[in-house]
Amino acid sequence: MSPKSSHFPSDDSDYLSGFANNFSSESIPGALPKAQNSPLLCPLGLYAEQISGTSFTAPRKLNQRSWLYRIKPSVTHEPFKPRVPKHEKLVSEFSQVNSAINPTQIRWKPVDVPDEPTDFVDGLYSVCGAGSSFLRHGFAIHMYTANKSMDNCAFCNADGDFLIVPQIGRLWITTECGKLQVCPGEVVVLPQGFRFSVDLPDGPSRGYVAEIFGTHFQLPDLGPIGANGLASARDFLVPKASFEKESRPGYTIIQKFGGELFTAKQDFSPFNVVAWHGNYVPYKYNLSKFCPYNTVLVDHGDPSINTVLTAPTDKPGVALLDFVIFPPRWLVAEHTFRPPYYHRNCMSEFMGLIHGGYEAKADGFLPGGASLHSCMTPHGPDTKTYEATIAQGNDAGPHRIRDTMAFMFESCLMPRICPWALESPYVDHDYYQCWIGLKSHFVDNTENTGLQNHERSNTES
Ligand SMILES: [Fe+2]
After folding, report:
1. Residue 225: CB atoms within 10 Å
2. If you count DSSP H runs as helices and E runs as strands, how many of each does the chain have, helices first?
3. Residues annotated as catalytic (active site), given as ranges
4. Which of 189, 194, 292, 432 has its CA 20 to 30 A from that of 23?
5. CA 263 to ligand 1 center in whole angstroms
6. Is 90 contained in some domain?
7. Known binder of ligand: residue 7?
8. How many domains does the chain have?
9. What tens digit of pLDDT does each residue of 91-140 get?
């Protein structure tokens, strides 16, 4: 293991905990100013810098900002220039010019990690999305395949928040608030504007990214569930302040701005924050801590019961993007078709699989793969799953789903699909076949009673 590992905390106690708290952290005692945010001279000669994640006048319950106390302020850099080479596969404003629509169910096989050296930024590519980062309403779904750490550079996404779901390989993420180790099975949120760099201690790495424009993730309301359950606020972990003070000649800030990359040079690390306080922070969450609720008598609950985080729209109950998981759990429903029901949805559903299998697909939906079922496109269990479930009959008994972690990004917006994703060699062109074998089990019990003819004659009269 690299000597850098000691800098990336692996124990929960190495983090602050909570969701949407007002946190504070100082890596040197006394580095945080007392009783005010911006004194004439900050302790230890630091610069005060605010990062605003919401407009100044956002309602208090939604307002997010943090104060960073740093060795040099972020503004100390040369002008931004378009990055050379361009990144051709990042989209932040989906239109007829750069993306297509297709209502067909689409499934992708897992994409291979490239052999050539590729870091997180170059390995990131948009798959689909809707809306516009410019208009502050929309989302993008990306995936990444990478194999090397970012070197002497940091990434900053001015367009939106990233929710990263690693599937292969740990992420060692250095942020302005401190360091996070994120393993497959955990997720991390990097809010709009934070600078971060990604090291890949395990080499070949792959994962999924949801990006949201113009809002932030919240914990879902629990309604009749009560005060506890699903993702608990205390299980969200926030890094503690740590800083680099050494000179870093030629250090590059890579800024994603309107889906395009720009670079600016500076001679120091952006991770020079000695202390900080606020409620606008990067955070991670271990999906194994999720407390699932489920049906205990009949029928399959709607997947919203497994919402980890939601990015709301202005319409009550309508999500710009929900992050929903399908974790290990007991299935106990009686005389019930237990897998997900056949479905057409006004929302659009993008699914991924972190490990194991998914209960509605016996074959073909593989870890690292993905599927997209767009607005009102039918979907549901494949033929094999349907027939196997029916064969079990009504006396299936309690059954524990083990070794699985599937997830869904669900949005009220209709996604457009990037051309490289539609034309990808990893598209599973036989996906539709998994339903073609569904046969009619219809038993027409009216044939011998004459009831059908009776109804027809009523209609005609
Ligand atoms: Fe669905």
Report:
1. 13
2. 4, 28
3. 300
4. 292
5. 40
6. no
7. no
8. 1
9. 999 999 999 999 999 999 999 999 999 999 999 999 999 999 999 999 99
